Automatic annotation (TrEMBL):
This is PucR family transcriptional regulator ligand-binding domain-containing protein. Residues 475-533 form the PucR C-terminal helix-turn-helix domain. It comes from Streptomyces anthocyanicus. Gene3D superfamilies: PucR C-terminal helix-turn-helix domain. Residues 301-418 form the CdaR GGDEF-like domain. Residues 18-139 form the Purine catabolism PurC-like domain. Belongs to the CdaR family. InterPro entries: CdaR-like_regulators, CdaR_GGDEF, PucR_C-HTH_dom, PucR_C-HTH_sf, PucR_dom.
Length: 548
């Protein structure tokens, strides 16, 4: 009989269709003559009956086996017989066409069709006791396996909780166990975390807020809404904080089972505990993750970026995007600055994502209406950032017309930050740096770690620097004043508070030490560039340097 003990599909109870496919029944040539659309019903048990009222002995989910001997002769009695089976929730009625009947009675077929009860006929004699034994073995085996899987789910989530796992790890585990997309959203229907095994986040999160708002909130794990989402509430300090959503399987359409409910309930419980134990607001983590993925272009499909940004409440279409970086002073509490900046920007109505891109660098993605002047908007962000973190250096990239171009705007802002030397002046009325501010001085500052720049500075000015170091003179300052005055000795002398003769004498010494002609415009340019390179090499480390 072992050949009949075929395992049922993993993750669910055997259905009517599964049972009919077993060899022990297949030999009877089963044929579904009514209720074909319901053969996916799970079979909880098998019941052999020759009673006229078998429903009184059933609890629901049974596969009812009969030879047809007890069926009433009159159509009304047949309808009553079927009504009682349907009312109690029988999975299906299987009748042998061997003894009393050789074709199913029309009244029986009509009654089963009317009540949606699968009616299966057997053209050949079948050993009902053997059917019962095989199916019960299959069901009990499934139940034991389901219990083992449920225990495994409980143990896995207990381990996650004890380890202090964050929402991303918890949802990743839930998606892996269920094979379904799992999403964490807050009270205002912003999708903060999405784990979509085998598919893209874009497919799951498209038009998320509208779809979520059409799905009613439930007090416990349950299926609701037009898309039949399985949802469970997530709480914080005794109040509803948001919910976790498990999406239906697409395209298979596999229905949610008890194991899915268990996984989602344990997910919600683990998230509720994690919400209490992890101090960083999950909204901040969500912003960080999306920003980093945009900067590093890690989205698996073009629509993913748009869907994830829109699911966090930022317009993803018909907008311009500007990347802004704020490099924070070393002593700044970066987490607090991040929270303050996001809160203050949100209060102004700005549409932004704010998140730490590195230990001392805050990233801001600003979404603007195409008609709004972008520098005006960036100025507002910059002043807010400076209020939240005094001493920060704010740099901006040029606008991006699409999310796909946001990485370029961030790269540009980063290059501006690299070239922003300490004390670099800003145009009047502006508190942030942009690409147009970066001249020769900024370029050399950005290249200050390049050995070729260091070699150039040493070749041009090394003898003069050595002389000042050995004799305590300040000829480099005299050279700087002369070059800043565009070669005007009188202006250089006045600026240094020296006599013209003293300046003339010092310049001759400089020419001798360097072997240069200070009357040559080209050589003056070379020396001026070398001085900027020396300044860049002597400058304090830029706030963002520790993170590069």
């Amino acid at each position: 009989m072992s050949e009949n003990r075929e395992p049922g599909p993993a993750g669910r109870s055997p259905t009517v269709a599964d049972v009919l496919a077993l060899p022990v029944l297949a030999g009877g040539e089963p044929r579904v003559v009514a209720g074909e659309e319901h053969v996916d019903r799970p079979v909880r048990w098998v019941h052999i009956t020759e009673l006229t009222d078998p429903a009184s002995f059933l609890k629901g989910g049974e596969l009812v086996l009969t030879t047809g001997m007890p069926l009433p002769d009159d159509p009304a009695g047949v309808r009553r017989y079927v009504d009682e089976l349907a009312a109690v929730g029988a999975a299906a009625l299987v009748i042998e066409l061997v003894r009393r009947y050789h074709r199913p009675p029309d009244a029986l077929v009509g009654a089963c069709r009317a009540r949606g009860l699968p009616l299966v006929t057997l053209a050949r004699d079948v050993n009902f006791l053997e059917v019962t034994q095989v199916v019960h073995t299959l069901i009990l085996g499934h139940q034991a396996e389901a219990m083992r899987r449920t225990q495994g789910v409980h143990e896995a989530f207990t381990a996650l909780t004890l380890r202090g796992a964050g929402p991303e790890e918890v949802l990743r585990a839930a998606a892996g166990m269920s094979g379904r997309t799992v999403v964490l959203e807050d009270l205002v229907h912003r999708a903060l975390v999405c784990e979509a095994p085998g598919s893209t986040a874009g497919a799951a999160l498209t038009d998320w807020e509208r779809r979520s708002r059409t799905t009613p909130v439930t007090d416990r794990a349950g299926v609701s809404g037009p898309e039949e989402w399985l949802t469970a509430p997530v709480e914080y300090q005794g109040e509803r904080w948001g919910r976790v959503v498990m999406l239906p399987a697409v395209p298979s359409g596999r229905a949610f089972g008890p194991e899915d409910v268990t996984v989602l309930e344990r997910t919600a419980m683990a998230l509720t505990i994690a919400r209490l134990t992890r101090p960083t607001p999950w909204e901040r983590t969500a912003h960080r993750n999306v920003l980093r993925d945009l900067v590093e272009q890690r989205h698996r499909a073009p629509g993913d970026a748009r869907a994830r940004v829109a699911a966090l409440g930022l317009p993803a279409e018909h907008a311009r995007f500007v990347a802004v970086l704020a490099d924070l002073p070393a002593q700044e509490d970066t987490g607090a600055a991040e929270t303050r900046l996001c809160g203050e920007l949100t209060a102004t109505g700005a549409q932004v994502l704010v998140g730490l891109l590195s230990p001392t660098r805050l990233g801001v993605l600003l979404a603007l209406r195409p008609s709004r002047p972008w520098r005006e908007a960036v100025e507002q962000v910059s002043r807010t950032a400076l209020d939240a973190a005094p001493g920060a250096t704010v740099c901006a990239g040029s606008p991006a017309g699409d999310l796909a171009d946001v990485a370029r705007s961030f790269r540009e802002a980063a290059r501006v930050a690299e070239a922003t030397a300490p004390g670099l002046p800003l145009p009047s009325g502006r508190s942030f740096h942009e690409r147009s501010d970066i001249g020769l001085r900024g370029l050399l500052f950005a290249l200050r770690d390049d050995l070729r720049v260091q070699d150039y500075a040493e070749r041009q000015l090394g003898p003069l620097l050595d002389h000042d170091a050995r004799h305590g003179t300040d000829l480099v300052a005299t050279l700087r004043g002369y070059l800043d005055a565009a070669g005007n000795k009188t202006v250089a002398a006045r600026s240094a508070g020296l006599s013209r003769e003293t300046v003339y004498q010092r310049l001759r010494t400089i020419e001798r030490l360097l072997g240069r002609d200070l009357e040559s415009g080209e050589q003056r340019t070379e020396l001026h560039a070398a001085l900027h390179a020396v300044d860049a090499l002597r400058a304090r480390p830029h706030p963002g340097d520790r993170d590069r």
